[in-house]
Specification:
With 301 residues, the protein is of the alpha+beta class. Helices cover 63% and strands 14% of the residues. A four-stranded mixed sheet has the order 1-2-4-3. It has a two-stranded antiparallel ribbon with strand order 5-6.
């Protein structure tokens, strides 16, 4: 099963006077990178979500947004005295540095400053803490399941396009193989013809040796090994479609190897008149498809 790394999922869990919403947005990333944004008073519950996600996904950047609405009778507020003193000191310095600025420091002004007054969770009973933890975990499970379902759907769409491009590569490879049947003999004849044109006396003096050297050189320039490896890579790539563990990384590696083989084919067949042009054209089309495939597999888990 192929999973995309793009998707979205949300989950809601409720109990008496408690509502928890967890939303997860996922994009591609080399590793699993989780970022959680939750209300300050409930940040100590974030590890529950992190454990749920790490157990469900292998790769991707996941941005998690948590909203907790808990209506309780007794609410305790925490006041950050040190931060208040720092703000008051800074405002006094600013007022001294800029005497023209009018206004006095007021309680209303202080309470509006971020981070000075927060809702405390230290007075939550063990029963309340367990309830909140349970509902956060439940909402995270629902969101993760929804996200995974969407990533599967996106993965199927990706594989549809990937299969189409693999078929194009296979078709162009068949074109190369069809023209490569006479590759060595064509290369040998072209090489001898060129030498004959440039040094006819050399051909007359050592024609047999020239034939032997030309054949050896042509055989070294054969592309049979490259096309065989390219076919093998295609088969390996197709086999990865059933892989469930980080198939994207393996696909990207195989595509790099395929690109290397096609580049070698191009270098060996350049300058071979019409035969080389036909092979080169097919090889270039393969390289184009490989680049498109590399763009696609970057989004596969």
């Amino acid at each position: 099963m192929i999973y995309s790394m793009t998707g979205f999922g949300s989950g809601r869990a409720e109990a008496m006077n408690l509502s928890v919403l967890v939303e997860i947005k996922s994009v591609n990333h080399r590793y699993l990178d989780v970022h959680i944004k939750s209300p300050g008073e409930y940040q100590n519950f974030e590890n529950i979500i992190r454990q749920k996600i790490s157990g469900a996904f292998k790769r991707g950047r996941l941005d998690v947004f948590v909203r907790v609405d808990y209506k309780r009778e007794n609410i305790k507020l925490d006041v950050n005295d040190q931060l208040i003193r720092a703000y008051v000191g800074m405002l006094a310095v600013l007022k001294k540095a800029h005497p023209s600025v009018q206004g006095e420091i007021s309680l209303e002004m202080i309470t509006r400053l971020p981070g000075l007054v927060t809702v405390s969770t230290s007075d939550l009973s063990p029963v309340e803490q367990n309830l909140i933890a349970s509902k956060i975990g439940e909402a995270a499970d629902i969101a993760s399941a929804q996200l995974k379902k969407m990533r599967i759907t996106e993965g199927q769409s990706l594989m549809f396009d990937i299969d189409r491009r693999l078929a194009n590569i296979d078709r162009h490879l068949q074109t190369i193989l069809a023209h490569a049947k006479d590759f060595v003999e064509h290369y040998r004849r072209q090489l001898i013809a060129r030498v004959t044109e440039l040094a006819p006396q050399l051909v007359a003096d050592s024609g047999h040796r020239l034939e032997t050297e030309a054949l050896l050189y042509a055989e070294r320039s054969d592309i049979a090994e490259e096309t065989t490896r390219l076919r093998s890579h295609l088969d390996q790539f197709s086999g990865l479609k059933k892989l469930e563990d980080e198939a994207g990384k393996r696909m990207d590696f195989i595509l790099q190897e395929m690109n290397r083989e096609v580049t070698t084919v191009l270098s060996k067949t350049s300058g071979l008149n019409e035969l080389g042009a036909n092979i080169g054209e097919a090889a270039i089309e393969i390289k184009v498809e490989i680049e498109k495939l590399r763009e696609q597999v970057q989004n596969i888990e």
